[in-house]
Description:
Blueprint: E1 5-10, H1 13-21, E2 30-33, E3 43-46, H2 48-51, H3 61-67, E4 72-74, H4 78-93, E5 98-101, E6 106-110, H5 118-136, E7 140-145, H6 148-157, E8 163-165, H7 171-175, H8 188-196, H9 202-206, H10 210-217, H11 219-228, E9 244-255, H12 258-279, E10 281-292, E11 297-308, H13 311-323, E12 331-339, E13 342-343
Parallel strand pairs: 2-4, 7-8
Antiparallel strand pairs: 1-6, 1-7, 2-3, 5-6, 9-12, 10-11, 10-12, 10-13
Helix pairs in contact: 4-5, 10-11, 12-13
The chain binds a DNA duplex (18 and 18 nucleotides) through strand 3, helix 3, helix 8, strand 9 and strand 11.
Amino acid sequence: MGKIILHVDMDHFFTAIEERENPELRGKPVVVGADPKKGRGVVSTCNYEARKFGIKSGMPISRAYKLCPDAVFLPVNYELYKKVSKNIMEILRKYADKLERWGLDEAFLDVSSRVKDYEEAKSLAKEIKREIFKREKLTCSIGIGPNKLVAKIASDFNKPDGLTVVRENEARDFLAPLSVRKLIGVGRKTEKKLREMGIKTVGDLASYDPSKLADVFGVMGSKLYLMAQGIDGSEVREREDRKSMGRELTFDEDTDDLDFVVGVLDMLSECVHKDILKRDFSFKTVTLKIRYENFETHVYSKTLPFRTRQLEHLKKIARELLVNNLKGLKIRLIGVRVSNLIPMKGQKKLEVDI
DNA sequence: TCTGGGGTCCTAGGACCC
DNA sequence: TCTGGGGTCCTAGGACCC
């Protein structure tokens, strides 16, 4: 028999945690994200009451405010959400051969060796939902399928507090009526390109000429065609090795005050440096990100011939990358990231590195 | 609709090495 | 003399995920 994969997706995670911590919020529209008074930034998560007003995650906070000025607007409390996420991942880990975290609030579980059929997988999923609710007072939606793609789309099919099973022989028909946008890896740009080719649904994609898809999208084209048939060979993989760590900040107002920008950049470098020390890495590459008033965004990087973990190296390279590449426009965002990470030797690994 | 902050992966050209 | 083929690393940009 093939694999059985679960996708667990916490229901409106950030706002659900806020409601749990402060029950007075229940029943009211709640939005976690940027400060609507400042007006810049987006909605991170909103609860179902807020969605009734048309608010969605990713939407500019100014628009959310116009749609529902009476909603409760809360800042993003990452430290709290990370702690809750860690608890939930520890619960999930017990139920799976392999677990792949996908952001703070989602995970794939390969349970192939733990269950003998989809009925048993369904019982397991119910048990997971019970335990998460008992321990954390939070609900989730779970999708069960023959691979990650189908499991993920299944978890999204019935929310909140849903459980959807899609067997291997049902996958094609299940996917066919859905928008291509539901497929993993199809975002706004690819959706638009596909629409221009007359492809709107997964069914349209499944019956399209695969060689034409390969011509237009390259390797991605073949993947798209397979996904449309419900086929996805990707493994559930435990990610041990972190690839990069960074910090970025959008200013309240665009600025051309270079001293100010350098000051913020130094502060971001210090934050990144703290994370490096906390997780015990050294790095070789520093990347500077800069976004101008017209939203034009650039990244510049420099790789050292040696590894380091010194704050002064980080600050100096970040500053150089900034002043060597500036255009004559006001600056909207500045960010710094380190990669080419090398774990320091002889140190024990953190159990869950979030 | 005037677009956050944390990330990952892919592509493509060029340097450099054997 | 005007010319290779394979491999790896670096850099910049872009699409995508939550």
